[in-house]
Amino acid sequence: MSRPELIAPPEIYYGDTESKKYTNNTRIQQVQADMTYRALELLNLPPAQPAFLLDIGCGSGLSGEILDDEGHIWAGVDIAPSMLEVALEREVEGDLFLQDIGQGFGFRPGSFDGAISISVLQWLLNAETSHPTSSPPHRLTRFFTTLFSALRNPSRAVLQFYPSSDDQIQLITSLAQKAGFGGGLVVDYPNSNKAKKVFLVLMVGSGGQVPQGLQGGAEGVENEEKVKFEKRRERAKARASMKKKSIKGKDWVLKKKELYRQRGKEDVPRDSKYTARKRKIRF
Ligand SMILES: C[S@@+](CC[C@H](N)C(=O)[O-])C[C@H]1O[C@@H](n2cnc3c(N)ncnc32)[C@H](O)[C@@H]1O
Question: For the Methyltransferase type domain, which residue ranges apply (predicted)?
Fold first, then answer.
């Protein structure tokens, strides 16, 4: 079966029907959640502190939901209006931006404590044009240079993607490097066709060593992953129910509010009670 990025441009491929089908597919939910948890692990954020994260190609918010559960604040960008509509219907907490990442970001320098991107980068390799300024290298260059600037120093961006050749990996890593990033590739389960996952771990400033990929054979990996996912899901459910019962610690709530204020939010409540607000897609 052909990969989606070879079939149609993303905003066409992820129309109303496909966006709903994608989001409601339990297998997809499981795989994307697993990769999001792994990306968070590779981000190596300071423990027990809410961070302000960018979800690149956020789609319908499958990853965003996990960022919420993990106590982070996030903004998401995506090119497909239907995906963002589904995210809105699901009432995700992040701020959503309709945007083509190949045109670069316009965020203030140093805005984000980190960024994740799950199953998106391969789309930039398949721009359907030979026009020089919209060729994949140009789009990737704009993407990496503006991402570099949007991240604070030091920090990391972790981008899981599906390369189809070593040349693609070479192109992506060299352009990321030219944009100023350190870091490199982390390949989990390299010997399993099914479980193999490629993460580009990009570092701004002194982000430390590139971590080792997870190892394991083809057998057992999937079951192991399922068990891990179920455990995480249980923990996330427990956290979500704690959130509902408002039993998060006072310090944690204060820290999160401080983070909101630092990011320029104007409607942060002054008392200790957090109140959600309606989200809008920004154009
Ligand atoms: C496989 S989906 C993944 C969505 C989400 N990250 C997840 O894990 O569920 C790929 C997403 O990348 C988005 N995408 C592809 N090319 C893009 C671009 N140039 N700019 C912004 N988003 C893009 C698509 O619209 C789609 O929502």
Answer: 54-126
pTM: 0.84
Distance CA 47, CA 227 (A): 24
Give yes or no for residue 74 CB within 6 A of ligand 1.
Answer: no
d(CA 215, CA 278) in angstroms, rounded, equals: 43
> How far apart are the C-alpha atoms of 19 and 193, rounded to whole Å?
26
| Dihedral sign (CA 199, 170, 99, 12) | negative
Ligand 1 within 6 A of 260 CB? no
CATH of the domain spanning 4-262? 3.40.50.150
Residue from 174, 119, 115, 191 nearest 148 by CA: 115
Measured in whole angstroms, how far is the alpha carbon of residue 275 from the centre of its chain?
25
- Closest to 141 (Cα-Cα) out of 176, 166, 168, 107: 176
Question: Could you give phi then psi for residue 161, rounded to 5 degrees?
Answer: -155, 170
Contact between residue 117 and residue 57 where contact means Cβ atoms under 8 Å apart? yes
Q: Any idea where the domains of the chain sit in the sequence? A: 4-262
Which residues of the chain carry a pLDDT beneath 70?
1, 127-132, 207, 217-252, 263, 271-283
- Which residue's entry shows tokens 């394991």? 216
